[in-house]
Amino acid sequence: MISNKELQIAYGLAIILLVVGVLSYAAFSAKAPDQPVRLMFKCVAGKILFDHKTHTVDSSCSDCHHNLEEGETDPQTCGECHEPESQDEDVLNRADAFHTQCIGCHKEEAGPEKCELCHVM
Ligand code: HEC
Ligand code: HEC
Ligand code: HEC
Ligand code: HEC
Predict the structure, then answer these.
(1) pLDDT tens digit string along 97-115?
(2) Is a pLDDT exceeding 70 seen at residue 48?
(3) CA-to-CA distance for 119 and 121, rounded, in angstroms?
(4) Which atom of ligand 4 is nearest to the CA of 50?
(5) What is the distance in A from the centroid of ligand 3 to the CA of 34?
(6) Exposed e or buried b per residue across 1-28, where buried means at least 16 C-beta atoms within 10 angstroms of its C-beta
(7) What are the tens digits of pLDDT across the range 51-71?
(8) Cα atoms found within 13 Å of the Cα of residue 22, Cβ hemisphere only
(9) For residue range 68-95, what is the model confidence (pLDDT) as tens digits?
(10) How many other C-beta atoms lie within 10 A of the C-beta of residue 98?
């Protein structure tokens, strides 16, 4: 025979499991903002194809999004601060910001340094 007490414990456990299940579902299905897979930059020197996804394999977000706070995933675009014709001499203009960061890391690690290997189209 199952006692009333045992039944109460069983129901209690069932309810706890249900609550834990619902909470975990809510926690893990909360999606991070979408990250770009591939980006195309248009430019007078020829378009540049940037594979964002492969670039995030070995580098952390803040290597490139240098203003990103720890744990943040939704950066501002570079151009919001690095304007094409920067008036502020402490802030690189857009093209210099990209060239410095992209080519800088390629020199240090791996990746194209020649103009035509980035400006492919
Ligand atoms: C190798 C450099 C690099 C790394 C590493 C990197 N990103 Fe980016 N990401 C970029 C560049 C460049 C852009 C384009 C910015 C622009 O258009 O001005 C970009 C764009 C984005 C955008 C779109 C921004 C918008 O509003 O259009 C998001 C979101 C983003 N990155 C998130 C991330 C996250 C999250 C990580 C880490 C997992 C990451 N990125 C790692 C270089 C990088
Ligand atoms: C919120 C504004 C902001 C955003 C967004 C931003 N930058 Fe910057 N960046 C700055 C400022 C301000 C400086 C100069 C002061 C400093 O070094 O932090 C700078 C400096 C730099 C430098 C020179 C750093 C050095 O080592 O000498 C590079 C290169 C650069 N940014 C590239 C980028 C690229 C590429 C992106 C986009 C992936 C980006 N920045 C996004 C504001 C920004
Ligand atoms: C933090 C380091 C880092 C930064 C910053 C970086 N790259 Fe790279 N990139 C690499 C490495 C490493 C490779 C080589 C990957 C391989 O071939 O396995 C690479 C390869 C490439 C390639 C050739 C392979 C491919 O993906 O088609 C292109 C094009 C490229 N990068 C463009 C860019 C551009 C444009 C930027 C700036 C917006 C940039 N990279 C910034 C590390 C970096
Ligand atoms: C690692 C990739 C890479 C390499 C190598 C590279 N560039 Fe760029 N270049 C870029 C990116 C990214 C931009 C920014 C495009 C944008 O504004 O959206 C850019 C922008 C430019 C611009 C536009 C300048 C402006 O003010 O609008 C010119 C011109 C240019 N590059 C010429 C060159 C020349 C010449 C070389 C070789 C000496 C070169 N690039 C090498 C990635 C590269």
Answers:
(1) 999 999 999 999 999 999 9
(2) yes
(3) 6
(4) 12
(5) 20
(6) eeeeeeeeeeeeeeeeeeeeeeeeeeee
(7) 999 999 999 999 999 999 888
(8) 5
(9) 988 888 999 999 999 998 788 899 999 9
(10) 19
